[in-house]
Amino acid sequence: MGMVQKRKKMHYGDTHLQRRWRVRNRRRDLDQIDDDLRTRSGELINQNVDLDKPGFAQFYCVHCAKYFIDDTAMQAHFRTKVHKRRLKALETEPYSIEESERAAGKGSFQKAKKRVMETQPTKEEVVAGKRIKVEEVAEDVSEEPSTSKATPRRKKAEKMET
Hints:
The protein is mainly alpha-helical. It is 44% helix and 5% strand. The protein has helices at 15-21, 30-39, 41-45, 71-78, 81-90, 97-103, 123-128, 144-161, and strands spanning 60-61, 66-67, 115-116, 135-136.
């Protein structure tokens, strides 16, 4: 009689992989959301009634790509860390093919542009004509403020030496 073979647990500690494989809670990526913000944000806020979606598809957060059951739940979502993190992540321009070519050596480096992101307007404001704006922030490229900060340090170092 032989010994009973013990079953080997090949994927015992792979909980981090199981989360990656799970597609049930998959959200849209930032570049897809950015495309929605630029092209069809008004359509997504004013959707037709769909009985299969939460809140009949009437309460949709464009920045998080998420449906809510009513307006109070959506307004509470706007105050959460999850929504604020998503707004912060959407402030930088998404990675593009042109940027990947510049990184590979075909062109010169350009810093990713910063944008101003605001929480989406309510349904009443959209009906009144307010839209989601994606505005780029004008950055000052002058070198003078950084050099002026460094000069007082040098003066202190010279005083200490004497």
